[in-house]
Amino acid sequence: MSLETIIGLLAWGAWTSVQIFFFTLIGSLPLGLVVAFGRMSKFTPLRWLVRFYISVMRGTPLILQLFIVYFGPFYLFGVQMGQDYRFTATLIAFILNYAAYFAEIYRSGIESLPRGQYEAAAVLGYSRAQTFMRIIFPQVFKRIIPPLTNEVITLVKDTALAFTLGVAEMFTQARAIVSSQGNLIAFLIAGVFYYTFNALVAFLMERVEKAFAYYHE
Q1: C-alpha dist (Å) from residue 37 to 56, 83, 92, 116, 181
Q2: Is residue 185 within 8 Å of 55, Cβ to Cβ?
Q3: Which of 197, 149, 148, 152 shows the shortest CA–CA distance to 170?
Q4: Which residues have C-beta within 8 Å of that of residue 26, sequence separation ≥ 6?
Q5: Rounded Cα–Cα distance for residues 101 and 60 (Å)
Q6: Is 217 among the domain residues?
Q7: For residue 149, what are the domain limits?
Q8: Does any domain span residue 18?
Q9: Which of 34, 46, 99, 184 has the highest local Cβ count within 10 Å?
């Protein structure tokens, strides 16, 4: 197999990894905020239900969650899913998992702000939604950027777990090439891809953090 062919196969796998990464963020970031609100809810049953969900997602391996989401429809409901469900199951498991982590990051940021800011906003006539979007969230977002960056970087590497469901992402392609060719070139190229991807994510998150530097503690 020529180097051009290897790079072509890995490029296809890299594109799949990138899709998993972006679709997971698009789904888990807003879902995490919703989960965070449920976690802080004054309605006790909802709060405990959300706490249980977060505990399960954070307390069990992502690889196990992938298997449950993929095989669950058949073993629990007798529904036979098609081959296309592999990618969908991967996204569902990733989104549910990362939403739990993002929810705790959001919650810690929200609860770190003094209650006086809410009271002052109420005196000024702001609604609860206006208070959160215009006053609270900008401050919260700046505070949570460092832990958020760590989770996003972890997500880049976790995309390799999609191989467990037979999704042909970067690591799956690299492993197949190494097995057939008997050399480590594909692994080296994959390593460069993951490192570069993470470096780009870190750079972009740093730029975002600087953009929010107008707010000082």
Answers
A1: 18, 36, 21, 19, 51
A2: no
A3: 197
A4: none
A5: 12
A6: no
A7: 3-211
A8: yes
A9: 99
Overall number of domains in the chain: 1
Q: CA 59 → CA 43, 51, 52, 53, 144, distances in Å? A: 24, 12, 10, 10, 22
**Is 174 contained in some domain?**
yes
pLDDT (tens place) for every residue of the chain, 217 residues total = 777 888 888 999 999 999 999 999 999 999 999 999 999 999 999 999 999 999 999 999 999 999 999 999 988 888 888 778 999 999 999 999 999 999 999 999 888 887 777 778 877 788 877 887 888 878 888 889 999 999 999 999 999 999 999 898 998 899 889 988 877 899 999 999 999 999 999 999 988 888 876 555 4
CATH of the domain at 33: 1.10.3720.10
In this structure, what token pair is assigned to residue 77? 């409901």
